[in-house]
Design a protein that fits this description.
- By secondary structure, this protein is of the alpha/beta class.
- The chain is 38% helix and 16% strand.
- Strand 8, helix 6 and strand 9 form a beta-alpha-beta unit.
- The termini are close together.
Length: 268
Amino acid sequence: MKFGAQVTVYRNTWDSVRGVAELLDQGPWDSIWYADHYLPPPGLREEEHLAAQEAFTVAAATASITKNLTIGHLVLGNTYRNPGLVAKMAGTLDHISHGRFVLGIGAAWFKREHEAYGWRFPSMKERQDRFEEAVELIRALFRSGEPVDFQGEYYQLDSAPLSPGCYDEPIPILIGGTGEKRTLRTLARHGDVMNLDGWARGPMTREYFRHKVSVVNRHCEDAGRDPGEIRHGEMIDAGAHEIMIGGIPTHRLDHYQLVAEEIIPAFD
């Protein structure tokens, strides 16, 4: 069993984030994860002036000061960046980290930050259509090794190379979200890692986890893909591979240390 931590990048400083990253890198932790927002969620107007550090920048900085941790996002919002740009940034970050990067991505949900920064906030259907198309495009760039042509409804590539490409192996694509009709179908078709945030809809249970996995498996069958190619996050005895712990403030290094000393060793 692997353990990671989602470290907040809101209402704090880079120096506090750096302190947590350095502590985790020296301990029994396997990974560190950052969210991707331009205003501090959940979107209180009186808090919009507070820090919300840009996710790719923080991840790249983390890659340069760590040696052991896998680095990723829970999760990037697809609507914030062109997917070709995302793939390019990911390839560069994968080289900075010497192959320790995982691309976590979702369809995006935070309407207010789109309004604040002048980005169009499409309908749910269009966001899901864009998301699936973007992940297909990114996966093609990660795995081709040659310039990629792509003609979608929303995104196009004209013999686009990915250089630098993935450092060693294709960068894993983690899909964030629980929607059974579209998000989990996108995972089954183009993703490598399932990330399930059961707490967003109530307490995580073994039954909830297994149900979502069964949905992914059905989508894999429809797509002609082996479900065993997809890794799972959360619930251990229900078949998960990694647990990400979130909610610990960056100034409470003692809490991270407590998890490292009292919880993680129990799963060795």
